[in-house]
Amino acid sequence: AAAPAVSSAIGQRLDAAAAPDDDIGRLARDLRTMMARIEQARDEQAAAREALAALNAGLEDRVAARTRELE
After folding, report:
1. Which of 11, 18, 35, 58 could join 25 in a cystine, given CB atoms 3.0 to 4.6 angstroms apart?
2. Rounded to an integer, what distance in angstroms lies between the CA atom of residue 15 and that of residue 58?
3. CA distance 53 to 41
4. Largest Cα–Cα distance in the chain?
5. What is the pLDDT of residues 3-27, one digit of tens each?
């Protein structure tokens, strides 16, 4: 939860600190791009983790039901 706020604050600082056509500006742009990719990967990883948890819960339910059938 705190990470997006931190990256947003860093992005704002990068915007304020650099002219777009100098080395610092290019570095700032590249860092913003990298931060956006990291945030996207983190979001995708969280979604995958949630999907896996749902699949595991469904599998546990199926195993429990099958076990009851066999008893």
Report:
1. 18
2. 46
3. 18
4. 73
5. 566 666 766 666 666 667 788 888 8
Going by C-alpha positions, the residue among 13, 47, 46 that lies closest to residue 31 is: 13
Residue type, 42: R
Residue 31 is encoded by which pair of tokens?
């860092």
Stretch (H or E) spanning 9: helix 2-17
Which residues 6+ apart lie within 8 Å of 39 measured at CB? Answer: 3, 4, 7
DSSP H or E stretch at residue 56: helix 23-70
pTM value is 0.62
Locate 36 and state its tokens. Answer: 């956006």
